[in-house]
Design a protein that fits this description.
This protein has about 270 residues and is α/β, with parallel strands linked by helices. About 50% of the residues lie in helices and about 20% in strands. The chain has 2 domains: about 60 residues; about 190 residues, Vaccinia Virus protein VP39 (Rossmann fold, 3-Layer(aba) Sandwich), CATH 3.40.50. Bound molecules: S-adenosylmethionine.
């Protein structure tokens, strides 16, 4: 009984009561043979449901075991690539996963960006900072966040990791903008201050706002450098896939590469 919750026990007792009630009512109107047949059928359905839920749980456990193991491998790689000067904040969940962090590192190594814009500050900002430092790239990171609490947290982390010379975290509350007469919420920021973005990391605003990340390209396309790379997290989310398909239609000179990460990653390169 240790593994059953109170809710499970209530369901079991409820089923038993329903079963007795059905049996009692059925015995008033049908023969004993039909009753046995019905009982057998019920037991068969119950056994099927138990086996089905057992297999589902087994499959889910296997998937999460595989993902957990993979993220540990990715985390080990990450720590062999960068030497952190303070503990990194927890990854996964709201933050990027270790596999995505490794992609940021690889892209910075490959492209040596002078300007990185990180939409949605956090671990991504720290990894970008460490990568720039490690590659001795004279680059700067501008990390935007719409939420004051997370701006504070990210700013403190940037300081703790000694990356203040490379990364700036800026509060940019969301405001309504219109794109092709359609309303969207987007970071309130004077983009003319940002020139020639070489690496754009799209991991904000939060996905719970419908189409929250779509404005990233319509607004920022003209600020991208000719060799710009756009890295998008959460490609597994249907909205993100739809958004990227729209971008590909609207901006003809982008090449898409999809990477099979925990949350799915998409890399768009200007040709
Ligand atoms: C997907 S998160 C960005 C994560 C960031 N790129 C990172 O690597 O940690 C998007 C936004 O969610 C907000 N956020 C971050 N952590 C959160 C949490 N634990 N609960 C609610 N919102 C959070 C922040 O405002 C952040 O900009």
């Amino acid at each position: 009984m240790n593994h059953l919750s109170k809710r499970d026990i209530v369901i079991l007792v409820g089923l038993l009561v329903i079963y007795w009630l059905v049996l009692f009512l059925a015995s008033l109107v049908i023969s004993i043979y039909n009753l046995y047949f019905g009982l057998g059928l019920m037991l068969f359905i119950l056994a099927y449901l138990i086996l089905f839920s057992f297999r589902q749980t087994e499959q889910n456990n296997q998937k999460s075991f595989y993902q957990n193991y993979r993220q540990i491998e990715e985390l080990k790689s990450l720590h062999s690539l960068i030497k952190v000067s303070a503990p990194l904040p927890s990854m996964r969940g709201w933050a990027i996963s270790p596999d995505f962090a490794n992609i940021i590192f690889s892209l910075i190594k490959e492209t040596k960006p002078a300007v990185v814009v990180d939409l949605g500050s956090g671990v991504s900002t720290l990894i970008s900072g460490y990568a720039l430092r490690q590659m001795a790239v004279k680059g700067k990171i501008l990390a935007l966040d719409h939420n004051e609490k997370y701006v504070q947290i990210s700013q403190t982390q940037v300081e703790q990791h000694g990356l203040s010379d490379l990364a700036e975290v800026v509060l940019a509350p969301l405001e309504e903008i219109k794109i092709n007469d359609q309303p969207f919420l987007w970071y309130k920021f004077d983009w003319s201050k940002v020139n020639e973005i070489d690496l754009l990391i799209v991991d904000g605003p939060p996905q719970k706002i419908k189409n929250s990340r779509y404005p990233a390209l319509p607004v920022l396309y003209k600020y991208l450098s000719s060799r710009a790379v756009i890295l998008v997290d959460d490609y597994c989310v249907a909205d993100t896939k739809a958004m990227i398909n729209l971008w590909l239609k609207e901006f003809g000179d982008l090449k898409l590469e999809i990477i099979n990460t925990e949350k799915g990653a998409a890399i768009l390169r200007k040709n």
